Amino acid sequence: MLVTTTTHIFRPQDEFFSNERKNSYRKIWAAGHWAVIGATEEKDQQKLKMPGIDWMRQAMELSDLVFIEADGSKRLPCKVPADHEPVLLPESDIVVAVLGLSALGRSLKECCFRLEKAKKLLSADENHLLTEKDMAAILLSDQGLRKDVGDRRYIAVLNQCDDSTVRKSAEQVGEMLINSTGQNSETIEKIVFAKLQ
């Protein structure tokens, strides 16, 4: 498996990391590991940026499975993309949208990256407390996490289902997604509940 980014991700331990100069992803795979490729950020050595596109495509051709992080959230549980996001490659055939359920009941200003975009999408102010209905709206909207998905397969992941109360909220969001009658309601291939721990 190959992991990379079209934006920025945290750099893993050296045993999993390959850059264009080392070009060691084949050795990492031979050891039975997943490989992360990217170019080291000059100002922050803990982060990787998108590798050279030609080198990235060569590595992608050799991999059975490729995960590309295309839109980060600065470690916040909620995100509404900016105009230039997400950065999806033409080769991408599945988009996995992830929302953290720790955002529920919290204000937009404390838990949502791209606050102005979130306020506009939800017609709310920065003190608005996120609800299950808001989560469903973000996952279904072409201005939310469905942005630029087009005809690609689309999977919604509700993360941080770490206890039964949060699981119930996730189930409510899932039901809203399934029962939605909007134009994007039939485009969600799967709804996944995940635990952070």
Structure description:
With 197 residues, the protein is α/β, with parallel strands linked by helices. 27% of the residues lie in helices and 23% in strands. It is built from six helices and twelve strands. Helix 5 (132-140) crosses helix 6. The protein is globular and about 45 Å long.
Strand content: 15-25%
The poorly predicted ranges are none
Q: Tell me the distance between the termini.
A: 22 Å
Task: Give the total of beta strands.
Answer: 12
Percent of residues in helical segments?
A: 25-40%
Question: Would you tell me the overall average pLDDT?
Answer: 93
The biggest beta sheet is recorded as:
4 strands, parallel
Helix/strand-derived category reads alpha/beta
Task: Compute the CA-based radius of gyration.
Answer: 18 Å
What is the string of SSEs from the N terminus onward?
Answer: EEEHEEEHEEEHEHHEHE
Coarse morphology: globular
Sequence of strands across the biggest β-sheet = 3-4-1-7
Which SSEs are present, and which pair or pack?
Layout: E1 2-5, E2 8-10, E3 17-18, H1 25-30, E4 35-37, E5 39-40, E6 47-49, H2 53-62, E7 66-69, E8 78-79, E9 94-100, H3 108-111, E10 112-113, H4 115-122, H5 132-140, E11 153-159, H6 164-179, E12 188-193
Parallel strand pairs: 1-4, 1-7, 3-4, 8-10, 9-11, 11-12
Antiparallel strand pairs: 2-6, 5-6
Helix pairs in contact: 5-6
